[in-house]
Specification:
β6, α8 and β7 form a beta-alpha-beta unit. By secondary structure, the chain is α/β, with parallel strands linked by helices. α4 packs across α6. 33% of the residues lie in helices and 16% in strands. Strands 1-7-6-2-3 form a 5-stranded parallel sheet. The protein has one domain: Rossmann fold. The protein is globular.
Length: 232
């Protein structure tokens, strides 16, 4: 087992061989520097996740309510500038340590959610886990739970099939793509509870809605999506 001292030595040696630098601008001694984090374009208004009409905190609007299992989706920022680079490095170039920087951008925006809410995340498929080595949404959500004191259940949902990445599909294809893609992984009574599903990106809301449909089966009264960035 690696001791604290030996870990510090190994980290020191790694920093010498592979010096830490900002994934956006290349500044040394940081993975995501303050200047680049400052370029994050935070959303000034929230929208219905389906028709994009402006609504309070991203609630599903009355017109879309009948086709949604979600209460709403709160999105922190636009998928642009340095944040886009950081998320891409985190997801596709396996810079796992960026989870702390990304979580720190998101968690202050959870203040208005009830502290007794249950936090979960969109699950990864076994194929994605084998390829990446971690569920990017789970890693950030775990930090959010620690920062807010919310109960965290990463295995509340499970993937039942591997799907084509949503960004490669149009809206109609996305809805079909996630049909029956999720199931309850951990059976528990959530009657009267608020459940928050974290994901790093949202485009059409189809994935979050499919997850919410399964969570509703456990009795949850409100199911929110909480997302780091919106992809166009």
């Amino acid at each position: 087992m690696q001791t604290v001292f030996s870990k510090k030595i190994s980290d020191f040696l790694l920093d010498i061989v592979f010096p830490k630098k900002c994934v956006s601008c290349g500044k040394l001694d940081t993975l995501f520097c303050e200047k680049c984090r400052g370029k994050t374009i935070f959303l000034k208004t929230q929208n219905c996740p389906f028709c994009l009409k402006i609504t309070p905190r991203g609630r599903v609007c009355p017109s879309c309510k009948g086709k949604s299992a979600l209460t709403g989706v709160y999105v922190v920022a636009h998928f642009e500038e340095s944040l886009k680079t950081a998320i891409h490095k985190y997801k596709y170039e396996f810079v796992k340590a960026l989870k702390d920087d990304l979580a720190n951008i998101a968690w202050p925006y959870m203040e208005d959610f009830p502290k007794n809410a249950v936090l979960t995340c969109v699950p990864s498929s076994s194929k994605r886990l084998a390829w990446r080595g971690y569920n990017q949404a789970e890693e950030i959500a775990r930090i959010l739970a620690q920062n807010t004191g919310m109960r965290f259940y990463p295995n509340l949902l499970k993937r039942t099939k591997y799907v084509t990445p949503q960004t490669q599909l149009n809206r109609k294809e996305r809805l079909e793509n996630v049909k029956n893609a999720f199931a309850v992984g951990k059976k528990m009574d959530l009657s009267g509870k608020t459940v928050i599903i974290f994901d790093d990106l949202v485009t059409s809301g189809a994935t979050l809605n499919a997850c919410a449909s399964e969570i509703r089966k456990l009795g949850a009264t409100r199911v929110w999506g909480f997302v780091l960035a919106r992809n166009k």
